Amino acid sequence: MRYLSSLCLPAVAAVIAMPTGVAAAAPVPGDSPREQQARAYVEALVTHNPDDVKFAPDAKRYEVGIQTGYSGAQLSNDLRNGLQYKVIQRIRDYSTTENGNAVVAKYLLDAGVGTTTLATVQITESFEVIDGSIHLIIADIKIPGLGM
After folding, report:
1. Which keywords does the record carry (predicted)?
2. pLDDT digits over 105-134, tens only?
3. CATH number for the segment(s) 20-142
4. Which of 11, 45, 50, 127 has its CB 3.0 to 4.6 Å from that of 79, i.e. a possible disulfide?
């Protein structure tokens, strides 16, 4: 039992001490309303606070071809509570392009535990933003240097 405690306590401490939102995409006054929504979503990946993200009720999200979002309420709840987002440490090298209702955000995402970064992935997310709310997100994830 003592051995188990010595293993579990550091793991629990690492999760409790894990910083959320080490860095994120900072708001930019020059962003269009559509770019603001894309940036708010990416910011929420790090902060776990989706209050500034406006989803359409029937919003959808696809990640590498697999549907991971089925409604605005579910997407918002996932940003706030989803364990898959708790390991995100920071977003960097963020840029967007806009064409009509579409915004494409490209960035690097660092993930890890505590202050240790375990992986960096390259994300390209396409957002369909209509009337100020996100209707569709399509995420493509690549591992830099591996071409995957």
Report:
1. Signal
2. 999 999 999 889 999 999 999 999 999 999
3. 3.10.450.50
4. 50
